[in-house]
Amino acid sequence: MDILDLAFMQRALLAALLVGVTAPAIGTYLVQRRQALMGDGLGHVALTGVGLGFLLNASPVWMATAVCIAGAVVMELIRWYGRTRGDIALAMLFYGGMAGGVMLMNLSDSGSSANLSSYLFGSIATVSEEDLVAICVLAAFVILTTVGLRRQLFAICQDEEFARVTGLPVRMLNLLVAVTAAVTVTVAMRVVGLLLVSALMVIPVAASQQIARSFKATFALAVGIGVTVTLSGTATSYYADVPSGATIVLIAIGLFGLLTALATPLAKRRAGKAAAAAECTLDAPGERTTADDVKV
Amino acid sequence: MEQPVISLRGAGASLGGRPVLRGVDLAVHGGEVVALLGANGSGKSTAVRSIVGQVPLTGGELELFGTPQRRFRDWARVGYVPQRTTAAGGVPATVREVVSSGRLARTRFGMMRRADKEAVIRALELVGMADRLGDPVDALSGGQHQRVLIARALAGEPELLIMDEPMAGVDLASQEVLADALRAQVARGATVLLVLHELGPLEPLIDRAVVLRDGCVVHDGPPPEAVGQHALPGHDHVHPHAGPAAEPIRTGLLT
User: Fold this and answer.
1) CATH number of B6-231
2) pLDDT higher than 50, residue A249
3) Chain A residues with CB inside 8 Å of B105's CB?
4) In chain B, which residues have their Cβ closer than 8 Å to the Cβ of A223?
5) For B28-53, how does the pLDDT look when each residue is reduced to its tens digit (9 = 90+)?
6) Which of A76, A155, B222, B236 is most enclosed, with most CB atoms within 10 A?
7) Which H or E element spans position A175?
8) Taking the CB of residue B111, how many other CB atoms lie within 10 A of it?
9) Residue B102 φ/ψ, nearest 5 degrees
10) Does A90 map to a domain?
């Protein structure tokens, strides 16, 4: 297969695989605590990091990671303290991040509009070896966090008040979720682009939810869907010469539609099975109905 | 006398600038079952939420197991049942997954050993939900959901059980199951503090009732006798409540 012989495609496919695993992994927790669009905001903030990288001649991936983590910490702080004007503060952060990134890119000598668009929409074929090292290290952190601390993260995302009374360090764990989401944004940046990062955190989870019944199954299936769409999207973008990010996201939406269509008959079959297992029967004549069933 | 499990002295708390607790004294001793009663807005929920550290006290002292609450870290000894929230998480979760999170305080780094898994099953058996292990929680009725939240608190085998309105919106059959589960906890020596709207099927279990009105304790002693239609079995408490400033307590418990 020629696609695997090319060094840049090998790098592209490895990056795509890591994004396919990490984005839905942290995305499951974000969706669980109803912060599905957090990744989108962080993507905006990361652009300032990319701009800084170009301006200072440093690695855009590492600079984006640093700025994005700082943005995630600020977002968590806003969530703790600034309840009243929280949404306004977040808007300032997001659009400030986006505008700052565009401005910094423009100020730097090497930053062109082609470069800008490759970060905004992804340009998987230009993933360098240096980028790939960064992506591998960051992905390892995301996987360790989301799998290793799954019970703790599940508890805080499911019922924060109960988790606090269990004695879990809820603030630290919330911060960890935010930082992990920030790291995932920079992992996915080269593959799907900053504007489409959030799609890979949300769509595989939404698709998986259509048929999964447990958190564990939702998580595993979302990662499976993530890997499927990133790998097939990358291959498609190579053969059809179309942008990788858009291809991946459109395939993910297609899969979501397919699973949604499958979900209804599946739910009916499950309901049918449950009904067959607990067939209704009339009490035998003369038998007393238990008091529990009848409210007087 | 031995150290009380919960000791609240002169506690004050406010929500949104409005004082909700105004000098509440409450002591719960080991093995006691204490019901906290009162009308809506009387501060009973705020009182238990401040005991578990979810509402900061603006004054007074609070000790858990003899340790000032601010320095208390031994949360594995406490089982908490918050008011049932209508909003579940955005991702499906099974009964087993939800109840397992109640065992976290007893595990090291969240590792579920065999004993932990057995404790989860035992807790579900206590509330009669062991056959629903793999079902998603959003497929449950209100009463079943409440039973799962109580199993979550029991999974940690707590010495002190704190429950906020465990009977709210719970059908009669589930109320009886919960009364049995509570009886089993009391039998093994657990201490229980629960917020109730009315005593209902739990009445025989309750050693002492503390009634709050406008953030003050107005009764601390044996559970008041239910009278009138409130004493009827299966009485469903559905009539709307007046504001906190109106009339004594509308539960009819003190009259």
Assistant:
1) 3.40.50.300
2) yes
3) 166-168
4) none
5) 998 899 999 988 888 888 999 999 98
6) A155
7) helix A170-192
8) 8
9) -75, -10
10) yes
